[in-house]
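hiii, so i know i said id send this last week but things got crazy w the move. better late than never?? heres the sequnce for the chain we talked about at the cafe, plus the structure i predicted for it. fair warning i was half asleep when i ran it
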Amino acid sequence: MDIRLLGWEPSTGWSAPLPDELDGPSTLVLAFGSPTPEVAAARLAELAAALPQAQLAGCSTAGEILDQRVAEGSMSVAVARFAHTALRRAEAAVAAPPDSRRAGRELAGALDAAGLRAVLVLSDGLRVNGTELLNGIKEVLPGEVVVTGGLAGDGDRFEATWVVRQGRPTGGVVSAIGLYGDRVQVGHGSQGGWDRFGVERRVTRSNGNVLYELDGEPALALYKRYLGDRAAGLPATALLFPLALCADEGGVGLVRTVLAVDEANQSMTFAGDVPQGGRVQLMRANFDRLVEGAAAAGRLAHHGQAFHGGCLAVAISCVGRRLVLGERTEEEVEAVLDSLPAGSSLVGFYSYGEISPSTVGTCDLHNQTMTLTTLVEA
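okay and structure toks below
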């Protein structure tokens, strides 16, 4: 498995020549970026021209990760040529959240074949209900197939996201890459680091990923009370107080983050479902625990795997973590690299949602986590 990392900056261009010698049907190209769609289209066209046989995937971001560096307005690219692994790409359109489950079934049906080991999913970050997308995928794929990935970002603007479709940045798309064969080893890890505070509240009115009331009070009014002066920055400032779905045993289950607010209905739209009747609790940041959570995700992702010369690690971290960490953001990326085997290559992005099994089992939609996927051939 031959891995190359390269970046593109508006002021300097590509950091290295595009590695056209790695082109082939078993080559994976991942491109994450936040330049304008026009600039992104030009850079993707250059990648497609240099690597025409490769499987090209990617999406817009709330920040790009390349080794220890976090940037914006740039492109972070990984090119990985597999020696013993076959690749297949599938895409599905999604115009609005109700399309999400159908899109998941469509993608899974296109990829479900003998030897499927793992699926990397990249989704539009605003038009998709991530929970329903994964429900559709899980309806079709066997439970032993590892599904990871994330939802595209748009900084803290929440206006428009794109996913690579047929080599171009396109809104309203979910794409997936299937990896086939018994030589590819896929690891995963997902950890948070947020602290719960305040009282547990009952979800008294919700519909899928739209939350209307907590304890009979309009959800948006409750959030505004906690945000105070920061309420003027909604929906971005709601990322400072994610919502924990409380597990039956009293612990924290999944975490949900806000994508949009509706003043007229006093509602909030989250990246995944907030079940009516469930219990939730607000969360806030603990800087040191966020960084330690990132390191723990790295350790989980390569636990029990045999690495010779490192791996390709795809890091997908939530935009909320970047907003909270601020100038300390690169600390969590450094923590991930330090936790990986020597010689590993790290690429990724800040997202509107992360896809991974919690520890074992089937995939879930997470928010406010650092999620790692590691790829290596035995």
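btw The CA atoms of residues 104 and 260 lie 22 Å apart. thought thatd interest u
miss u guys!!
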